[in-house]
Amino acid sequence: MKKLESTLVNMVGVLVAVCLVMGGILAFVNHVTEGPISQQAEKTLADGIKAVMMSPQLTVTASDTVKETIDNKECAFIVHKVAGADGKELGAAIESTTLGFGGDLKVLVGFNPMGEILGYTLLEHAETPGLGAKADKWFQKDGKASIIGMNPQKPLSVSKDGGEVDAITASTITSRAFLKAVNQAYNVYMKKGADATSGATKKTTSLNAEQQ
Fold first, then answer.
1. Among 34, 50, 73, 76, whose Cα sits 20 to 30 Å from the Cα of 16?
2. What is the percent of the chain where pLDDT is above 90?
3. Three-state secondary structure call for residue 186
4. For residue 51, which phi and psi values (nearest 5 degrees)?
């Protein structure tokens, strides 16, 4: 086989061919992994809703996307309205995102019909391991600064800002961001939880304890 001459045209042709092949491989891998990734994300959310609502058996009666303008920026929240196995309203789990120290901090917060915090979990974060990442435990019922059972009618804030919640050691920025996400979730729930109509996507999903 005749060796290709080292000309500009030949080099460009080889580079284009390599790019096309690599692009095809990446597209194939993305197609293959898209389904499992989506399924895992749905399972993580379903498990999170059960955890923050403190109920192993419940039904998501509606999931509504609500858009609010906060600090001159449009923010999207997702309100998952929840009912128990007997059909009685349990409250709602709210997805709320704020900017933490390392990037977006996405929190799922569960509220009962009175607006009291049932539980929470971190869905996404980019905080420093060992410091800001402690938010997943720090504010839990058995954590060092539990917010479980509190009602954010009066916005929650860290003690350094005159509030009653102790900040994570050496992670005040993360603590403020976390509490801001919780406060925003509460405001959306109180304002839209009963009848969220902005960009709503209605669905009914049973989240039984046996679901894997």
1. 34
2. 50
3. helix
4. -70, -45
pLDDT tens digits for range 99-120: 888 888 999 999 999 999 999 9
State both tokens at 59.
Answer: 């039904």
Alpha helices in 53-120 (DSSP H): none
The tokens for 186 are: 């509460």
Residues counted in the chain: 212
Q: How far is CA 15 from CA 22, 23, 26, in A?
A: 10, 12, 16
**Closest Cα partner for 196 from 50, 88, 63, 99?**
63
Q: Check: pTM over 0.85? Answer yes or no.
A: no
Gap between the Cα atoms of 52 and 23, Å rounded: 41
More confident position, 128 or 199: 128
Q: In Å, how far are 5, 71 from 2, measured between CA atoms?
A: 9, 65
Structure tokens at 187: 């405001």
| 142 token code pair | 């058995």
Q: Is the pLDDT of residue 123 over 50?
A: yes
